[in-house]
Amino acid sequence: MKAFVYDRFGTPEVLDLRDIESPALADDGVLVRVHASSVNPLDWHMLTGTPYLARAQAGLRKPRHGVLGTDFAGTVEAVGKDVTHFGIGDDVYGARNGAFGDYVSVRKSIAQKPSNLTFEEAAAVPVAGVTALQALRDKGKVTPGQTVLVNGASGGVGTFTVQLAKALGANVTGVCSTPHVETVRALGADEVLDYTRDDFATAGKRYDLIVDIAGNRSWAELKRVLSARGTLVIVGGPKTNRWVGPLGDAVGRRLVAIPDRRTVAAPFIAAIKGPDLVALKELIEAGKVTPVVERRYDFADVPDALRRLGKGHLEGKLVIDVAGGEA
Ligand SMILES: NC(=O)c1ccc[n+]([C@@H]2O[C@H](COP(=O)([O-])OP(=O)(O)OC[C@H]3O[C@@H](n4cnc5c(N)ncnc54)[C@H](OP(=O)(O)O)[C@@H]3O)[C@@H](O)[C@H]2O)c1
């Protein structure tokens, strides 16, 4: 199969499109022909080996997985002998190391594809959508009628967070920059704050839940707008710390919040699980959530997609047409 392989950590230039062996099929897994993928900050961490904490998963001295990529949407081409929930020909989506390749071998992080999405749209969902779902439902424990502030509402995770918070019955305020204000409003946000003009930290409104995706505000600023029994969920943060990345900042903010007796959820890394992909599929098919795609790239242009990701300020997701329009 063709795949984007890398033998050392580095910038997108270290990626090489090569012919390699297809992954083996496990007895309890399925082999998926990948039609589409998308890029996530996670792929950037795996590519560059930074922050160094990421090397626990990416590999200590050199890349452990060889093939880059995580999100996929495709068709089941073979099933292991113990598999009962999937059959050959099923259209599926999920997350697995090696998704920038023709095939992935998957066990758990997979579900049937939302029937109303193309493969490219479906590939935009897994990592960003499940992160948003777990931030709101599991960490934030959002309930209908609560006020939710999404700081960083227009990117991959943010566009799902706004829509999911609305679907879960919240009153949502999204924070983003000028070019994305109309998109965030169209996703259903009740209020949109343009951070180049309005500062939510001094606006005087309080929120029951803050989902901090941009991670650029101090605890002192956030606690001013968090209601007395409110919760802060930290999803992302500054990439300035080469050792632990956003995690250092997130842990720091949790520690300084202790004397204030407010709930700051433990920093988390989303685990992509089948049941959460099924929950998202149902919300997508019900018309409550739609992936936002800034741009599609040909498979050969994966390095360009990663460079665009590295520049930041995306509107939604960047998707990759892995199968070259075959599907
Ligand atoms: N914990 C987890 O499991 C998990 C999973 C996925 C991602 N993440 C992390 O979450 C973060 C975001 O991921 P993503 O895929 O959504 O990235 P992204 O697509 O680049 O989105 C970043 C968002 O931050 C906003 N932003 C940038 N500067 C801002 C500012 N000064 N004030 C307010 N918002 C600002 C951007 O808005 P504008 O473009 O309008 O500036 C955009 O909405 C990354 O740090 C990533 O590593 C964590």
Structure commentary:
The chain has helices at about 40-50, 55-60, 120-125, 125-140, 155-165, 180-185, 220-225, 245-255, 275-285, 300-310; strands spanning about 1-5, 15-20, 30-40, 70-80, 90-95, 105, 110, 145-150, 170-175, 190-195, 205-210, 225-235, 265, 295-300, 315-320. The strands form three sheets. Strands 3, 4, 5, 6, 7, 14 and 15 form a seven-stranded mixed sheet that branches. It has a six-stranded parallel sheet with strand order 10-9-8-11-12-13. The protein has ten helices and 15 strands. By secondary structure, the chain is an alpha/beta fold. The chain is globular, with a radius of gyration of 19 Å. Helix content is about 30%, strand content about 25%. It folds into two domains: about 1-125 and about 290-320, Medium-chain alcohol dehydrogenases, catalytic domain (Quinone Oxidoreductase, Chain A, domain 1, Alpha-Beta Complex); about 130-265, 3-Layer(aba) Sandwich (Rossmann fold), CATH 3.40.50.720. α4 packs across α5.
